[in-house]
Design a protein that fits this description.
The complex is a heterodimer of chains A (132) and B (165). Chain A has 132 residues and is an alpha+beta fold. Chain A is built from 3 helices and 5 strands. In chain A, strands 2-3-1-5-4 form a 5-stranded antiparallel beta sheet. In chain A, α2 crosses α3. Chain A is elongated. Chain B is of the alpha+beta class and 165 residues long. Chain B is 53% helix and 19% strand. In chain B, the strands form 2 sheets. In chain B, strands 2-3-1-6 form a 4-stranded antiparallel beta sheet, sandwiched between helices. Chain B has a two-stranded antiparallel ribbon with strand order 4-5. The N and C termini of chain B lie far apart (58 Å). Classes of the chains: A alpha+beta (132), B alpha+beta (165). At the A-B interface, α2 of A face α1 of B.
Chain lengths: 132, 165
């Protein structure tokens, strides 16, 4: 259907862009570190990190919860910072599972989340906060 | 005012394994274990207070579970995932979900009406066949009012064909 330019302007004005669902991103990206109480145990391999995320999800949400796909896009082995990708519908559950994971193999641990964004490009420049 | 009402759902479930008879306690424990395995601490937290096995008939292997209203789907899928009760292999099927015990009873009356003709074909004596047909006629005319009455007749019928073997 061909609209005149005035009609198109009015259609755009009436549309509420703040609440429209078309503009929500499909994935959410998290920048995290896992901090352990005894610093001697350091996580070298991203697969170990993936296993810990899986453990956190299964303990809180069971087998059904562990089926939520969490991808590690990048793992920085020197600084131990991971960039995770989650579907935006799973955001609340995955984030709460990571926050509530307190013990890993008899030592205390915590997931520290430095940055959250709907777009991957925002992860590129900002430096992590000091972890002390 | 309405938010203070305790709304619940009742699941009518049948255990497909008829050889063994289970106890209410074992079924309750099996459902809790299934929720813990499949839905984790969050699942148990949602449902533990409101979960109760309200009624259990060991002979027909039908039981009734009460759950709080928002979480009945979670419990239904957890029940479907149950593989063992008391270390014996079973499978459970949910027949009906209702809001009150009375509507569950109405459903069960209709369900027994449909399954009793199948028992007729399995019964070997003519006497038991006559008995079943009499009961079916009685229920078609009036409609069963007492859950107890229905249960007693079904229990008798389930016991008798086994004795006649």
């Amino acid at each position: 259907m061909a609209h005149t330019s005035t009609e198109q302007c009015e259609m755009l004005k009436s549309k509420d862009f703040t609440k429209s669902k078309e503009y929500k991103s499909k994935y959410i990206y998290l920048k995290t570190t896992l901090q352990l109480e005894d610093d001697s145990r350091i996580i070298d391999h991203p697969m170990v990190f993936q296993g810990i995320i899986n453990e956190a999800l299964t303990s809180l949400f069971g087998l059904v919860g562990s089926a939520m796909p969490v991808d590690i896009l990048k793992y920085d082995t020197s600084k131990h910072i991971a960039i995770l990708r989650i579907h935006s519908c799973d955001k609340v559950k995955v984030w709460s599972a990571l926050s509530l994971y307190g013990f890993h193999r008899n030592s205390r641990c915590s997931f520290q989340i430095h940055q959250v964004s709907g777009h991957l490009i925002s992860m590129s420049n900002s430096p992590p906060l000091s972890t002390n | 005012m309405l938010s203070s009402l305790y709304l619940s759902r009742y699941l009518v479930c049948e255990i497909m394994n008829r050889d063994v008879q289970f106890k209410e306690k074992n079924i309750h424990v099996a459902i809790k274990e299934s929720i813990l395995l499949n839905f984790g601490d969050f699942g148990i937290g949602c449902v533990q207070l409101s979960l109760k096995v309200k009624y259990h008939n060991p002979l027909t292997s039908i039981f009734l579970v009460r759950v709080k209203r928002g979480h009945h789907q979670m419990v239904q899928s957890a029940i479907t995932f149950i593989q063992q009760i008391n270390r014996k292999q079973t499978a459970i099927q949910t027949l009906h979900i209702a809001g009150t015990i009375r509507s569950c009873q109405k459903f069960l009356v209709n369900y027994h009406k449909k399954t009793l003709p199948a028992i007729i074909s399995q019964a070997k004596d003519d006497d038991t066949k006559k008995k079943i047909q009499d009961i079916l006629n009685c229920y078609n005319v009036e409609g069963a009012k007492d859950m107890k009455l229905m249960d007693e007749t079904v229990q008798d019928l389930v016991e008798e064909p086994e004795q006649s073997d």
